Every structure is written in C-alpha cells, then in structure tokens.
Amino acid sequence: MTPVAIRHAIDPATGKTLDTQALRDHFHVGDLFQPGEIKLVYSHYDRMILGSVVPDGAPLTLDKVDNTGTESLLERREIGVLNIGGAGTVSAAGQSYAMEAGDVLYLGMGSGAVEFAGEGRFYLVSTPAHRVCPSRLIKPSEAKRLELGSKETANERVIIQFLHPDVQETCQLTMGYTQFLPGSVWNTMPCHVHDRRMEAYLYFDLGADARVFHFMGRPEETRHLVMANEEAVISPPWSIHSGAGTGSYTFCWAMAGDNADFTDMDMVAMEDLR
Ligand SMILES: O=C[C@H](O)[C@@H](O)CC(=O)C(=O)O
Ligand SMILES: [Zn+2]
What we know:
Cofactor: Zn(2+)
EC number: 5.3.1.17
InterPro entries: KduI (IPR007045), KduI/IolB_isomerase (IPR021120), KduI_N (IPR027449), RmlC-like_jellyroll (IPR014710), RmlC_Cupin_sf (IPR011051)
Oligomer: single chain
Bound molecules: 4-deoxy-L-threo-hex-5-ulosuronic acid, zinc ion
Organism: Meridianimarinicoccus marinus
GO molecular function, one term: 4-deoxy-L-threo-5-hexosulose-uronate ketol-isomerase activity
C-alpha cells in the first residue's frame, strides 16, 4: 500500500495569516521524483491526488493507497500521467503505453493497478470519477494549442491542452502544460481565480540555480512561494496562481471541480492586486 501525505483545505482568512514555512507546509510540494519511489500527496481541495513515480531500473506499481478506502486507487478515480523524463512504459488494464517526454496518458476509472517502467519520470494527477471514460495516450501533436502573451510583457507562451473537453473526455480532470518562448518568464499574468475549480502546478525544466516566484493568495492579499525544479504547488480555488522565473521553465497545470471549462476564469485587474 502506497502512503499518501495529506494536505488539508485552508480557507483564505487562515491563508493570509501564514508565514513562509506555514505557507510551504500547506501549499508547496517538494521531495517529488525520488528514484525508485512512488510519492503521493492528497489535497482536500476537490480530493486531488498528485505525485510522482520514478522507476529507476525496476518497475513500480501503483494500486492500493492509504486514504482512499478502496481496493485500488483508480476504483473510483481517473488519472492523468505526464512523462517529464526519458522513454518509459505505463501499463494498465492489459494495455501498455510507450511514453516519451511530453506525452500525457489518461487512464479512466476502473483501470486497476498501474505499472511504471523504463527511464520515465512520471508526474501524476488523480481526481474522483463517476463513470468510465476511455483511456488514451495523447501526443503533443494531438493536443490543443493556445498561444498567449507577448515578448514585450515577457509572457509569450503556448498552453498545450491534453485533458481538455476538445481533446480527451474526462469526468472532471483537466491537464496540460505551458511552454515559453525564449526570454518570456511570466506565467498566468494577467492572473485569474476560478472558485469553481482548484488547480495544481508542477514546475519543471528549470536550471539547478533557477527559481520561479509563484504568486498565490486572494488578489488583494498576495503571497509568494519560491519554487525549484520539479516542485509542485497546490492552488486553492480562492487563490491566484501565477509565477515569474529567474530562468526558463515549463509547468504542468491540472484542475478539478465543478466544470472543465478552461475559459471559465475571473480575470483580476492589475489595479486590484496587492
Ligand atoms: O486556469 C488555467 C490555468 O491557470 C493555466 O492553464 C494557465 C496557464 O497555463 C498560463 O496562463 O500560462
Ligand atoms: Zn487557473
């Protein structure tokens, strides 16, 4: 049985009282991508589980976990898997999927045990599901691309949508990643909130000495978390989620909640940010 670290849901009034360490304890997820280990974190925001699997020479199997009270993690859940490492294989329900870096795999409810093998570094996001949607390996060329920002505002980027209603049907999970054009370092600015959905970000492809200053909090009460490579952050539904890197990076976003409408965002006016 794979252990899962719990993160409770924090309300905005409590959120603004937290100091740096307490903010990190609640929202920052470090220590992922340990060789030979499955690492999982269970957030009580929409019961999203996120984590990593790094097979490192021997296959690793994700099946029964603490905290879900089911025989298998995917008994009443769906999962998205992003490979940020070398070539690897993910197998479930009698199917084997060869995953290269940048590929996203969707496994529907009831997929059973999932085996991870090869040189992959796998990032996982799982949310409760209520029906079976077909499992599918999605290549970047099959994903939907949304170009945003400009060079002048240092936020020129491509949002690559994999688990999105136009690409792959899911129960509630949406997932993809955002890549930058050279010189652009700002993600999700101008920023937004969406009380209907929580979100998690995984920052990756950062240099060892590079950091992303990730901004969170109510728009009128912002805080920041300093993120290193391959660290994740849980974004409450009431929080902005935006970041600026000291160097280049990519980040994976995933959401769960009342709808899967990517455009359902409440944009925050610059003059309202504090
Ligand atoms: O609700 C959508 C999410 O916050 C992200 O997809 C935003 C993002 O990737 C970006 O603007 O760079
Ligand atoms: Zn968002």
